[in-house]
Amino acid sequence: MKEVYVAKTASRGIAVASVLKYQEPDYTPDRSCITEAQAAEEKAKFAKAKETVKNVLSALAAENEIFAAHLDMVDDFTLQEGVDGKITGELKNAQVAVHETIQEIAALFGMIDDEYMKERATDIQDVGKRLMAELKGITLPDIGSLTREAIIVAKDLYPSDTVKINPDFVKGIITEEGGVTSHVSIIAKSMNIPTLVGVGALLDSLGDDTVICMDAEKGIIVVDPDEKTLAEYQARKEDYEKERIRLLNLRNTPAVTADGKRISLCANVGNLEDIQKALEMNIDGIGLFRSEFLYMENTHFPTEEEQFDVYSKAAQLCPQELTIRTLDIGGDKELSYFEFDKEENPFLGWRAIRISLDMKDMFKQQLRAILRAGVFGHVRIMFPMMISLEELRAAKEVVEECKAELKAEGKAYDENIELGMMIETPASVLMAEEFAKEADFFSIGTNDLTQYLLAIDRGNKKLADKYDYFHPAVLKAIAHVIKAGHKEGIKVGMCGEMAGDAKAVKKLLEMELDEFSMSAGSIDYVREQILNV
To answer: pLDDT (tens digit, 9 = 90+) per residue, 61-114?
Structure first.
């Protein structure tokens, strides 16, 4: 018997079953050279593969919106241009051209120090896998054909691998790679399948008949359990199922503390699909809509109309509250169609509100779209990375310019839209009392705030044990911000990782935090904690 401890829980639960090792086919491209005369033939191969994949994804998209996004990726101009350029300009065959272009696009997302955004690289690679399978004549493996109970153990899984999973047979999922915000994790949560990701090398040490017990809440894997351990996990599995049903029954209970204070429970999202998933949790609104996805998953700066289409749909989906953070790009978030100057420390460089105020025309396109979407629900604008009153006032002035333009054009907009800001820099903490006089609301971003307060790169694995939002300095900063906001009568929320940590709920409620915004998978657990405080 051997125990393995894992840090990343993607979907909670307990499972006991034998292993099914999932091995991917070899998608390595054939690297044979081509001549100029063969370029047209290779482009035709790609076009045929693309059309086949589009047909498959169209059918899948009708059942699951994850694949609607994949369908957009297949039709993306960046993919088409990249493949065509490698075939005609570099005389690479279709397989190599597709492989290299997919890797380049995925790398843009993979470099970002934000797990949610980093995992979008997996979706792009999934699309590439489908294209490569068509070009190589490979049949994609089908986990859906499984006829025995098993825990799937794989190097990694993609949405196309998991969409046909039958939860009657797949009792758990363990991957050596991957992250908790991947679409595979989202699918696993929707099926209530216990899932652990990023467990490291495990596959080679297991056989297909190896029995495993896994506790995906505590992050424990027991390989070859003895009879006593097996019985213990079976009993815990039954207890967990009862607990899960109890939490589901709490979803219709408003988040009110034992002494009667109503707390807002909101979700952090990046697109319309995320909103629909979050609504299943009976949320009070969207506390953070990451608008940068509209920019990063595009081939150009999105137009006002393109943004209005998304924001208005989002507001109609969640009319009770939709807080849209204006473009938070720069740092480790790059755009394929815009070249940033190289900076020695991009996290302290030209990013977020600094870019928006410098690129005023682009900023106005976004603000006009948000203002127009405001007529469809309770939409709020939130500015990131503020450090001075001058920045806040400048941003508010641009909003007023946009309002005047829309009024002159006779376009409907929200005249009284709320204008808030992220508290995520030491400067914004120290200036919280002054900011509170001019902002309509605060949202504390604990991820960056912890990084900047402690002078610790949150992506540095050597310092991971020191990156701690329970550090006294961080807690004092949070308490100060909440007190400053309440003194001026504005609501204070939190949209960093700390807001979704059940262990932090009591402390944050003691500080009188008004709104908790988090990934949808944490809402049930935070709600329970709120009800018990």
So the answer is: 877 777 877 888 888 888 999 999 999 999 999 999 999 999 988 887 777 666
Q: Which fold has domain 264-532?
A: TIM Barrel (3.20.20)
Q: What is the pLDDT of residues 15-37, one digit of tens each?
A: 999 988 888 888 899 988 899 99
HSE-CB at 419 with a 13 A cutoff on CA atoms is: 20
Tell me: pLDDT of 331 over 70.
no
Q: Which distant-in-sequence residues (6+ apart) come within 8 Å of 516 by Cβ?
A: 263, 264, 265, 266, 287, 493, 494, 499, 500, 505, 508, 526, 530
Residue pointed to by tokens 């979700």: 267
Among the options 70, 99, 183, 402, which is catalytic?
183
What is the rounded average pLDDT for all residues in the chain? 88
The residue written with tokens 């005023």 in the block is 360
Q: Which of 213, 318, 402, 495 is catalytic?
A: 495
Fold of 36-136: Enzyme I; Chain A, domain 2 (1.10.274)
The pair of three-digit structure tokens given for residue 377, joined into one six-digit string: 């629900």
Contacts of 365 (CB under 8 A, 6+ apart): 301, 302, 303, 304, 307
Position 287, amino acid: G
Q: Which residue has the higher pLDDT, 428 or 59?
A: 428
Question: How far is CA 89 from each of CA 29, 50, 84, 86, rounded to the nearest angstrom?
Answer: 18, 20, 8, 5
- Measure the CA–CA gap between 134 and 49, rounded to whole angstroms: 5
183 classed as catalytic? yes
The strand order across the sheet containing 14-22 reads: 2-5, 220-223, 211-215, 14-22, 150-154, 170-175, 195-197, 8-11
Q: What 3-state class would DSSP assign to 64?
A: coil
Asked about 70 being catalytic, the answer comes back as no
* Contact (Cβ atoms closer than 8 angstroms) between residue 281 and residue 250: no
pLDDT (average), residues 153-181 = 79
For the segment 367-396, the average pLDDT, to the nearest whole number, is: 97
Other CB atoms within 10 A of residue 52 CB: 15
Which CATH code of 3.40.50.720, 3.50.30.10, 3.40.50.1820, 3.30.70.80 fits the domain covering 2-24+141-227?
3.50.30.10
